[in-house]
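Please, is this right?
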Amino acid sequence: MSDSIFGIHGAALELRSQRMGLIASNIANAGTPGYKARDIDFATALKARMDGAGADQAVNAATQFRIPVMPTLDGNTVEMATEQTAFAENAVGYSATLSFIRGRVETLSRAMKGD
């Protein structure tokens, strides 16, 4: 039912949340030798989700390793500037998606009250 009420926004919010967790994991492992930074291709994941894939399937299919600009000697591919930028971008998208959902809920509430 939430798919019909919220449309693409429900799926987008779920995927943005999972992407935020993945980026946070990259940041947390910035000092771990050999850690390979990953990210979700959001457009690919959202398309898969809208085509009927489960959230985990969509994320797994769209997860990619980052290619570092400046590789480190210990094999870690986390670049803090890249991660911070991706995190900020995703946070803005998450907030915007949440605003769309909030607006939809308010519209439905007014319709049920008869306002």
Remarks:
- Residues 2-113 form one domain.
- The two ends are 23 Å apart (CA to CA).
- The helical segments are 2-6, 8-28, 42-50, 55-62, 80-113.
- The chain has one domain: 2-113.
